[in-house]
Structure formats: structure tokens, C-alpha cells
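Worked example 3. Consider a protein that binds adenosine-5'-diphosphate.
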Amino acid sequence: DDALRLGLRIIPYAEGQRLLVARDMSKLMQLEQVRRDFVANVSHELRTPLTVVHGYLDLIEPDQSPELEPILVELRSQSRRMTQIVEDLLTLSRLEAQDSLPEERVSMTGVLQTLRREAEALSLGRHAISLDLRTDTDLTGSTKELHSAFSNLVSNAVRYTPAGGSIAIRWELRGAEPVFSVTDTGQGIAPSHLPRITERFYRVSSSRSRDTGGTGLGLSIVKHVLQLHQARLCIESEVGVGSTFSCVFGAERALAAAAEETG
Ligand code: ADP
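Given these inputs, the predicted complex is written out as C-alpha cells:
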């Protein structure tokens, strides 16, 4: 544990010599833990009052004063947004507190079909949505967390692609590595934004993201889930053309398709 708290770096010093620099990281790690606990506690405390506000707002009928109707619609939409932010923050806290996740067989055919249905429900016929299953390989990992990560990528594709665009959800092997990807013909992301895009609350355009119901936490969740699966996120994007978000898994996570059950 002590070794973990030391930041060790080896740097070239003089001809044939190296300098070993050790830095005490315990203070930094303590602060990081305080930050994590604080976020988790605040989110947890906000959950109950928000549920109450949300519940009562749903009960109010503006029969007496119809001019209240637009105000109620706005209040309901904002309270839903707050609830979603709190839920996403709690998801992130939960992921940060974990060193590993369950290692189960993730039935990719099932997950992909659910994702397609989710995309269709969000798109409401405004996009052409396709499923491109190029392998019947399954994955080892946590079905729940992987589904939530993939779902975030699919929902972003729908939300950042104008009506008439197309979205392709793909599952394939690149060499021996299983890859899940979502390609859209949406607004794209400029290269200058890419390095920060997975940070909490980082957005290219906050108003657009808010309009489309985003919390600014989706890609952070994706990043954490992939880290827990030792997988990486690759983003290729061109402004005005579209984006591809790929989750690249290690070959050791590929599982031959389960044999068809007989009898
Ligand atoms: P948000 O809730 O704002 O969508 P995310 O963390 O999911 O939060 O995404 C961060 C930002 O990345 C978004 O606000 C948006 O600017 C950009 N982004 C994410 N996915 C896409 C996409 N498929 N096309 C264009 N921009 C995207």
C-alpha cells in the first residue's frame, strides 16, 4: 500500500545516469477520496427530496388556472433533468469505488437487439438505424455496466444527429479483438474538443446538449466502464460528417458463441 502512495519517476540525468524521483502522493490520494465521498454523499442526499418534488409535480393538474400549464411542463422537465444528473453521478461514484466487475457471459446478440430498440424509441423514426452483427462472439464482463456504456453511445448518436441521418450499431472482430462501435452521420466533433470529451460535464455546446436531454456525464460513464474492462474508447469524428465511437476489448474477453440449446 505504501508503494502505491509513492509517485515514482525515472528521468535521464547526465551521461549514463538516471535520477529516481519519488513523490509522496498520500495527500493527493486523500483529497481525491474526500472529493469522491463528497460527490457520492451529495448525490445520495439529493435523491429523496428530488423524488418527492417529482412525485408532487406529477400530481398537480392546472384545471383552475390553465396559464400554469407551460410552467408545470418546464418544472417537470427540469426536475427530470436533475434526477438524471443525480442518477448519473451515483453511477459514476459506484464505478469509481470498484476495482473490478462481475465476469459473466454477455450475450451480445441480446444486448445489441435491446440497443436497437432503445435507439428506435429515442429516434421516433427520424433516423435510419441499422444493426451490423459481423460476429457471433460473446464477451466476458458485466452485462449491466456494458449495456449502460453502449446505451450512452447509442443515445448520443441519436441526440447529435439531425433528422434524416443514419446510425449504425456494429459488433465485430478486428483481428482477435472484439469491437463494439456506433457510427452516426451527425454534427461531428472538432479535433480540439476530443482530448477533453470524456471529462465530467465537458460539452462542445452546452445549450445543444441541454436541449437534447444530456447530463454531460455519459462519456465519463463510458470511460469508467471500459477502464474496468481494460478496454479503450476510440473516437473518429469529422465536423459536419459524423462520428464513430468504438469500444475495443482485449482478445482475452472474446468468448466463442454459446452452443444452441437443444431439446
Ligand atoms: P451529454 O449529456 O452532454 O451528451 P456526454 O458525456 O455523453 O454528455 O457527451 C459529451 C459531449 O460530447 C456532448 O455534449 C457533445 O458535445 C459531444 N458528443 C458526444 N457524442 C457525440 C456524437 N455522437 N456526435 C457529436 N457530438 C457528440
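Take a moment to read the result before moving on. Residues 152, 156-157, 160, 184, 186-189, 197, 203-205, 209, 214-220, 243 surround adenosine-5'-diphosphate (CB under 6 Å). The two ends are 53 Å apart (CA to CA).
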